[in-house]
Design a protein that fits this description.
With 327 residues, the chain is of the alpha/beta class. The protein has two domains: 5-178 and 219-240, Rossmann fold; 180-215 and 243-278 and 294-318, UDP-galactose 4-epimerase, domain 1. The chain has nine helices and 13 strands. It has helices at 14-25, 82-87, 89-110, 146-166, 190-200, 219-230, 248-259, 283-289, 297-317, and strands at 5-9, 29-34, 53-57, 72-75, 113-119, 170-175, 178-179, 204-207, 213-215, 217-218, 238-240, 245-247, 265-268. It has a seven-stranded parallel sheet with strand order 3-2-1-4-5-6-11, with helices on both faces. It has a two-stranded parallel ribbon with strand order 7-10. The longest helix has 22 residues, at 89-110. The radius of gyration is 19 Å and the shape is globular. The model is unreliable at 322-327 (pLDDT under 50). Bound molecules: uridine-5'-diphosphate.
Length: 327
């Protein structure tokens, strides 16, 4: 019997590359598509030698062609950090809207199941806490994060359109803050910023007073939730994230403690529309998928630290200036 075949857009990114690995391990033939705007070939180099792995250097907002049959399409392409949206606002809007349309069209044509990577940003600066899937959100459409939030909300609407009108089997995962190896060192998110600052002995930059909260999920737990969702019957959105909520100050202190760094904490201005709280209600994921996160923050941070230590060391060896993006 031939192997099941999956297309993963954004497959050379942080989450995409972990998904490629998981689907290979599950016996799939994997087509990894990426335009490498924020993705990195280094994330998938180790998969390249496998005959069941194929890389397609392509922009998902253009017409996409994939040879042969497909069983599943996972749409994970998008800039995904607040500084990325500021630098790439049009690409962010296009990949969430036009890219989702192309990926859905492909899934429809191939009679494949479709899974959309959506986001807790759909809830904006939430007025319901913790966030349940039936909360419609509090998003500023014209703020700096609007390009991401609204593109993802449109992507959810488009996905449900294809589901209701064309009968495509669709799944929507709302992903909460996730961390782990292969995050870009300088993508501006809290974990890469804090870890690389602690390892370089620089001050950790906490935005605002650090009382805003987030709930951080280790990447392996997230990937497991996504795999289960794809194989479930649930067409409406499902939150996947770790409900362990903490303030950003507590998170910064946890990174300093883990690294044993002598770095101090410095405060910078809070970015516009930065959500004050965020915590997934995962009752639905528990019920429908039998899923909940297993990796504690201490274990997850320790696993992530090994990766960041290697990256910061090689950055220092190659004499790159701190704060400069690595190839
Ligand atoms: N943050 C911070 N210092 C940094 C980067 C981020 O204090 O160097 C804060 C940010 O303001 C937010 C939280 O950490 O309140 C999480 O930010 P991130 O960019 O990781 O993701 P978000 O949840 O905002 O999308």
């Amino acid at each position: 019997m031939s192997k099941p075949r999956v297309l993963i857009t954004g497959g050379a990114g942080f989450l995409g590359s972990h998904l490629c690995e998981r689907f290979m391990a599950e016996g799939y033939e994997v087509y990894c598509m990426d335009n490498l705007v924020t993705g990195d070939m280094a994330n998938i180099d180790h998969l390249g030698g496998d005959p069941g792995f194929h890389f397609l250097h392509q922009d998902v907002t253009e017409y996409i062609h994939v040879p042969g049959e497909l069983d599943a399409v996972l749409h994970f392409a998008s800039p995904a950090s607040p500084i990325d949206y500021l630098e790439l606002p049009i690409q962010t809007l296009k990949v969430g809207s036009l890219g989702t349309h192309k990926a859905l069209g492909l899934a429809h044509a191939k009679k494949a199941r479709f899974l959309l990577a959506s986001t807790s940003e759909c809830y904006g600066d939430p007025l319901v806490h913790p966030q349940t899937e039936d909360y419609w959100g509090n998003v500023n459409p014209v703020g700096p994060r609007g390009v991401y939030d609204e593109a993802k909300r449109f992507a959810e609407a488009m996905t449900m359109g294809y589901h209701r009108y064309h009968g495509v089997e669709t799944r929507i995962v709302r992903i909460f803050n996730t961390y782990g190896p292969r995050m870009r060192l300088n993508d501006g998110r809290a974990l890469p910023a804090f870890m690389s600052q602690a390892l370089r002995g620089e001050d950790l930059t906490v935005f605002g007073d650090g009382s805003q909260t987030r709930s951080f999920c280790y990447v392996d737990d997230l990937v497991d939730g996504i795999y289960r969702l794809l194989n479930s019957d649930e067409a409406l959105p499902v939150n996947i994230g770790n409900p362990h909520e903490m303030t950003i100050m507590e998170f910064a202190r946890a990174v300093i403690e883990l690294t044993g760094s002598r770095s101090k904490i410095t405060h910078l201005e809070l970015p516009e529309d930065d959500p004050k709280v965020r915590q997934p209600d995962i009752t639905k994921a528990r019920r429908v998928l039998g899923w909940e996160p297993k990796v504690s923050l201490t274990d997850g941070l320790a696993r992530t630290l090994d990766y960041f230590r290697d990256r910061v060391d090689s950055e220092m060896r190659s004499g790159k200036v701190a704060g400069q993006e690595q190839a």
